[in-house]
Design goal:
Layout: E1 5-8, E2 11-13, E3 20-26, H1 33-45, E4 50-55, H2 58-61, H3 64-68, H4 81-88, H5 92-105, E5 108-113, H6 116-125, E6 130-132, H7 140-148, E7 153-156, H8 162-173, E8 179-184, H9 199-206, E9 212-216, H10 222-229, E10 234-238, H11 256-273, H12 285-291, E11 293-297, E12 312-316, H13 327-330
Parallel strand pairs: 3-4, 3-10, 4-5, 6-7, 7-8, 8-9, 9-10
Antiparallel strand pairs: 1-2, 11-12
Helix pairs in contact: 1-5, 7-8, 10-11
């Protein structure tokens, strides 16, 4: 199965395709539909490929006691955790409205399905791909059912060890070849020493038939750019309009200016990565013509002389002579014309020399 596949209509990922950048709005919209639309537009304006939310059917994601427990955090939107989550949860009709708005703006739209019923709704909504959050890595029935829907998948792998990630890979791969695994550390905000970007290299070696990517919760954009250098083909970052807003994710999110800079820097890094084929590039020709070294006569060399190495020197010469790296090939060859001291040793004065 090729490494490259279509994640969204008309948008391939993997291989030499551009990195796919997901602006994770999540629930940073504060439960306000108009703020959510502003964030979709912001993601588009900043150059992201996709605006992503989080969808839960709360009674399917949480137990009754989990929803009824008191929630006294400064980030709380209600007296209980259930009240808090209900405030942040958009209805099906609101999701349809957001999807329509994203289409009008011109950006891909999807959400993490945080439970099986949410995934079923997103399937009905015809999102281009499913996002599986780290919390469902050990939810094998959910992974199976999601994979069997046949849509492309992006799977984060926070809070897991390598054995668990292999299990995720094997569970999804059995039913669906078109998925991406993201290195992720589930801490908000994330400290640099806990990022572990080298896992991207491990993933590439362990899962060579799928693209890999990075879901980051760190401050700033530098680490995410490092992920591109290590081969990430998907970058997911939380975004916000105000880092001081109520909510756990805002402090680990990017402001619009940061998201725009991330997109710019990702595209710059992709240009800089190149092909991996080492050769002298056309842009280097002027420098080579000016400073490239070639062979000159260290002493006057009369016509008919058999060359020895001590007759030759390597210098920046005008005109450029025989390439410096060919100095050992000159030993034993005969010059067909006089060569004055410090003159360039040109190919046409060396018998039997072919460039």
């Amino acid at each position: 199965m090729p490494l490259k596949f279509e994640l969204c209509p008309g948008r391939m990922i993997g291989g030499d395709e551009p990195c796919f950048i997901i602006a994770e709005i999540g629930q940073n919209h504060q439960g306000d539909l108009e703020i959510a639309k502003q964030m979709i537009k912001m993601a588009k304006d900043c150059g992201a490929d996709c605006a992503k939310f989080q969808k839960s059917e709360l009674e399917h994601k949480f137990s009754k006691t989990a929803l009824e427990r008191p929630y006294t955090s400064v980030h709380s939107w209600g007296e209980t955790y259930g009240d808090h989550k209900r405030h942040l949860e958009f209805s099906h009709d609101q999701y349809r409205e957001l999807q329509k708005y994203a289409e009008e703006v011109g950006i891909f739209f999807t959400a993490s399905g945080m439970d099986e019923m949410a995934m079923e709704f997103l399937h009905e909504l015809n999102v281009p791909f499913f996002k599986v959050g780290s919390g469902d890595n050990n939810n094998l029935p959910y992974l199976q059912k999601t994979a069997m829907k046949g849509r492309p998948m992006v799977v984060s792998t926070g809070m897991q060890n390598m054995e668990a990630v292999r299990r995720v890979y094997n569970t999804v791969k059995e039913h669906n070849p078109n998925f991406v695994i993201l290195q992720c550390t589930s801490a908000y905000p994330l400290e640099a020493e806990d990022v572990n970007l080298r896992v991207l290299t491990v993933y590439q070696k362990e899962f060579p038939d799928i693209p890999i990517g990075y879901s980051g919760h760190e401050s700033g954009i530098d680490i995410s750019i490092g992920a591109i250098a290590l081969g990430a083909k998907v970058i997911e970052r939380h975004v916000t309009l105000d880092k001081t807003w109520k909510g756990n994710d805002h402090s680990a999110s990017l402001l619009p200016s940061e998201l725009a800079e991330l997109v710019r820097s990702v595209r710059l890094m992709e240009r800089a990565l190149g092909t991996g084929i080492k050769t002298m590039l056309p842009c280097e020709q002027a420098c080579f013509d000016k400073l490239g070294k070639s062979l000159v006569a260290k002493v006057r060399i009369p016509k008919g002389t058999v060359l020895t190495q001590d007759m030759l020197a390597v210098k920046v010469a005008v005109p450029m002579g025989i390439a410096a790296e060919d100095i050992f090939k000159m030993v034993g060859k005969t010059v067909t014309k006089d060569v004055e001291e410090d003159d360039s040793l040109l190919p046409e004065v060396v018998a039997g020399f072919c460039e």
